[in-house]
Structures are given as C-alpha cells and as structure tokens.
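S.,

Sequence below, as promised.
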Amino acid sequence: MSFRCESSSVADYLAESEWIDYRHPSILALAEELHSQSTDETAFIQSAFEFVRDRIAHSWDIKSTRITCKATDVLAYKEGICYAKSNLLCAILRSQGIPAGYCYQRLTLGDTPETGYVIHALNAVYLRSADKWIRLDARGNKPGIDARFSLGEEQLAFPIREHYAELDYPIIYVMPHPKTIDALQQHSDCRTMYLHGLPAEL
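The prediction came back faster than expected:
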C-alpha cells in the first residue's frame, strides 16, 4: 500500500519534542559514535536501526515492569515497548539530520482476533539518496520475529494478516500518536499495561 506524510514539510520530521529529546548529550554521543562508524547516510540509518532493535530490550520480552517513554530514558534503561523504542530511533536519526516519523499497525494482541487488538508502532525514515521513505521496525527480534533493514521489500516484525482484520495505517506521523503516549503515561506496571492498557485503534 502507499503511505502519505502527515506534513508536506520534510523539516517537520526533524523536530525535537519532549519525547524525542535528541539534543541530550547521551543521544548525541550515541548518534555521533554510530555516525562515525558509518560510510554514508544509508549505513548510518541501518546502524541506528540495528542498535535500537538489538541493544534495547523489548520490555515485554524481558518481563519488565518498568515503563519508559522519552528517548533518553529508553537509552538509559536499555528497554522499552515499541512505542518507546520508536522514540529512541527517531531521536538518534533526527539528531543527525535524518528525517524520521512514526507509522502504526493494528494487530491482534495474541495469535487470533479473540485475543483483542493492539496498536503497534514502528518508524518511517526518509532516504535522501533514494528520495523515498522506508519503514523500519526496531521492536526487537526473537523466535518468530525477524525484522531487518531493507531498501527494497519490507522486512517488518509483523506482516499484516488481512483475514484477521489487521491493518497498516497509511500516515507517516511527525510525532508519536497521543494514544500511545497516554498509554505509557497512565500506567505504572508495564506488564499490566501491555495486556490491558494499550490502544486497540487510532
């Protein structure tokens, strides 16, 4: 399917916010380290994606009760759910002038619709060299999930299953959707939030 930007200005996808606090020294230090080890823009984007995917644990996978939201907190604690991890990847990229935004999917919470639905967050990144946006899912891999960096066919964590009424939302958002931030702010236990407190639709 085709995706459309929420804003017609690429510059909006470079903005800092309370959640994308990329001018913090910890974010800048990490971004500059990753950038220094990359040969070009594409290599840096891949390096940033793989850092967040592999070096930041998904809180549900490690059965953590902690909830992180701001990019700096995700980096400090090295964990977060997809909403939080997407904030960190966005911050790393924007700190180096790479436009990045947010995309969302509506997925079943478990394997079938009877388990209910949940909103999943991932990122979209603009590659100037290719003049196109690509989606990247830094949720974190595990058995059954194998998200990868790709300039061609997408390799996301969760392929959409239309027969289960799962869907891709078509908008590339400038900022994290308010429903995702509200979920993170209104709960104190990540395990409870993950099972009972995540939005089912945008």
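The first strand starts at residue 4 and ends at 5.

Coffee later?
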